[in-house]
Amino acid sequence: MRVIAGCVIIKDDKILMVKEGKESCYGQWNYPAGHVEDFEKISEGALRETFEETGCKVKLTGLLPIISIDYKNESHLLIRFTAEMVEENISYDGDEILDVKWIKMDEIKNMKEEELRGYETAIKTVRDIENKNTYPVEVFDNNKYSS
Asked: Which candidate in 48, 69, 88, 114 could, as Cys together with 76 as Cys, close a disulfide (CB 3.0–4.6 Å)?
């Protein structure tokens, strides 16, 4: 099972989205997210991926419901943090990301399936935010334990 962590950064009824440059999802919008590396804390992975894909520094503010996804013969666990902007300095690697911009939640909900990466989870993300289906970030135990 792979763990994917990302940040849903919200400001003025908009979410900061990235336009993917990877071949498998080329041109699709997504919130900043990626695979958590071995021995990396999940929250740190979310912050790292957000910085790598947007150039922005954020602060985690909450947690959306965790989602299990079956994708290309692999199980993925998707952990979505809500976040607020600490330092907005949009910059990105043009090979992986084509664009970064703030998109209104209503616009996201009206996008076609081919416009959004992980269409169902992207729409669920907006609905979870609108319905205040979020949890305090403290429910996520960020400590590492050894056996």
From this structure: 69
Q: Is position 86 within any domain?
A: yes
pLDDT digits (tens, 9 = 90+) for 94-140: 889 999 999 999 999 999 999 999 999 999 999 999 999 999 998 87
Domain that holds residue 59: 2-137
Who's near 14: CB < 8 A, 6+ residues apart?
Answer: 102, 103, 104, 105
CATH at residue 7: 3.90.79.10
pLDDT per position as a tens digit, 82-93: 999 999 999 998
In a domain, 112, yes or no: yes
Tokens of residue 39, six digits: 């021995």
